[in-house]
Structure formats: C-alpha cells, structure tokens
Amino acid sequence: MIKHNLPSSLLSNAVEELASLPGIGKKSALRFALHLLRQPKENVKRFGNSIIKMREEIQFCSLCNMISDTPICHICSDKRRDNSLICVVESIRDVISIENTGEFNGLYHVLGGIISPMDAVSPSDLTIDSLVKRVAEGGVKELFLALSTTMEGETTSFYIYKKISSYPLKVSTIARGVGFGDELEYTDEVTLGRSIMNRQPFIPIN
What we know:
Blueprint: H1 9-19, H2 26-37, H3 41-57, E1 59-60, E2 67-68, E3 82-89, H4 92-101, E4 106-110, H5 128-136, E5 142-145, H6 151-164, E6 170-173, H7 189-197, E7 200-201
Parallel strand pairs: 3-4, 3-5, 5-6
Antiparallel strand pairs: 1-2, 6-7
Helix pairs in contact: 1-2, 4-7
C-alpha cells in the first residue's frame, strides 16, 4: 500500500474519501485533492454542493426505477416513446448506454441487479414484482430482456419469463455476443445499436 506523509490531516481525510471512489487510487486522489486546493473557494463549494444536492434530491422513477429529478422520469413521461415495448435492464448505466445508441424508442425497467444466490440477491431484492404489475396492467406487447449472458443473468431472464408467461406478449433478448451488465457501457454504440435492432426471441433453457 502506498503511504503518504501529508502535512495536513484535513488533506489526508480528503484524500481518503476521494480514494474510496471506484477506480481512484491514492496517487490520483492526492492529485485531485491538490487540484481542488488550487481552485477558487467558490468553485470548490459549487462542486461539493452539486454532489450533496444530487445525493439528497435525486429520485427514482416510480414506474421504471430510473434516476430522475421528478417522480416520473423524462423517458416514461415522453409521449413519443413506445409504451408497448419495455426493455428490462440490470442497472441505470445500462439505460444510459442503450439511450446513447439512439436505436431504442420504448420504455425501460431497471431491476437493480440480477438474481445471485452467491451474493445473497434473491428475486425479492429486485423490482421484478413491479415489472410483472406493469405487464398485468395491459398495453405491453413486447418485453425486451437486455440482461447478462452469465448464469445469473440467464437465471434472472428465465425467472422473469416464467412470471409473465401467462400474458399475451412477445419476449425478446438482445443479440448475443455483446457485453452486458458492467460491460454494456463499454460496448461501442454501433455494435450495441445493431444488436438492439436485431434482437431475437427469448428461448428459455429448461
């Protein structure tokens, strides 16, 4: 572990907090902290307040669970979107990645994870029940499962498929060969966009 003999406990505390962010090591954290020290106080206050305001005031859409500034997110409230098509994703980052392709015009449903017994994540920990409720309310013609091709992702897809199998709707999945979950955001937009356009019927593995 890299150690720094810092001249200030305040600086040391700031470095520790910055280093707690994913992908930020102690050297980078120190560089960021020193950079902030060189900035006008008002700039640093604005930076800090934006983080605090985000954490305290951001909401989760009551329909799809996407982050939002209002009770209903801008995607769900957009009259131009196809509300008969719902794309089911693991995380908020997946929504952002798919939106960046410009190839999807339906709505979303963020599960907040995938079923993983090893990580003690069960169906009740996810927003599957609210997804089934959306389907049960009618109007949904296609459920697009854009989940991981890992065992956990396939288990989640199959569980959802079984839960909604009694409803008259099409269930599809993204074209295989594309990274999912944590990797979906790193897939280039052209490849991801084509995979969305060429989505395939979901075939459950018994």
